Amino acid sequence: MARLVIVALTIVLLGIAAGLAGALVLPKTYGARAEILYSIGQDPQSGDPLKQDRELSTQLVYLTSRAVLGPVAQKQGREFDDLAKDVSVQVLNNSEVMEVEADGATRQAALQTLQAVVTGYMTLISQPTGVSRNLHNQLADADTNTLALQQRVQQLVPAVLAGTATQASLDAVRAQVTASSDLGKALQARIDELDLTGQQGPGAQILTPPYAMPDPVFPQPLISAGIGALVGVIVAGAVVGVAARREALARV
């Protein structure tokens, strides 16, 4: 019996050694991480947690989409699918924080890939929505029109005093100034409302800048040793079982 125990322990130790050896021989893969805070605009009167979850899930998909990874892959001279395998994203602990990770053959390669992905995402996500662009364009037109009308009023005042223009024409332009100014205020109020509810665009910001992780993400010595030990236990169990059965049969 003691001999079988020694054999089993030897097999387990050989499995651990093989796992560690494999971890040392296999090519290493390094990782880099970053955290992005994606603040979801929420109207307190009509907040929908499910909608927020869907929006975060959409951002996870967007981060690994061709819109973000395509330009990075092209710049690195890689296929999109190849790059997509090296990039992973997840939401941390039911929060609004997204963790982004990129892998590479070296720490520098992983960090450069992650920086390019984060930069591309932040650039695209910061672009205003169609509604926002339309409102800002209307506000710019209203401000320009108000300024032009105010200048017209300044021209008409001395003309009215000189008798070359009527008071009615001056009053009409002043009314147009008021209307244009009120329109500008209404447009600004709508823009402020979009900012408040987050409808103008999500407030994404880098919470933790990209950084390289010190240890390889693959292979990991402890995990490799654990797998080797597990394989060793299975093999040892089979060997001991067969040996014990043979001894039992020999006694018979």
Describe what you observe in this structure.
With 252 residues, the protein is an alpha+beta fold. The chain has helices spanning 2-25, 49-63, 66-76, 80-85, 107-125, 130-162, 167-197, 221-251, and strands spanning 30-39, 87-91, 97-104, 203-212. A 4-stranded antiparallel sheet has the order 2-3-1-4. A hairpin with a 5-residue loop joins strand 2 (87-91) and strand 3 (97-104). The two termini are 17 Å apart.
Give unreliable regions as ranges: 42-46
Distance between the termini: 17 Å
CATH class of the largest domain: Alpha Beta
Percent helix, as a range, is: 55-70%
> What is the string of SSEs from the N terminus onward?
HEHHHEEHHHEH
The count of domains is 3
For the largest sheet, list the strands in their spatial order.
2-3-1-4
- The CATH architecture classification of the largest domain is 2-Layer Sandwich
Using the CA coordinates, give the radius of gyration: 34 Å
Structural class: alpha+beta
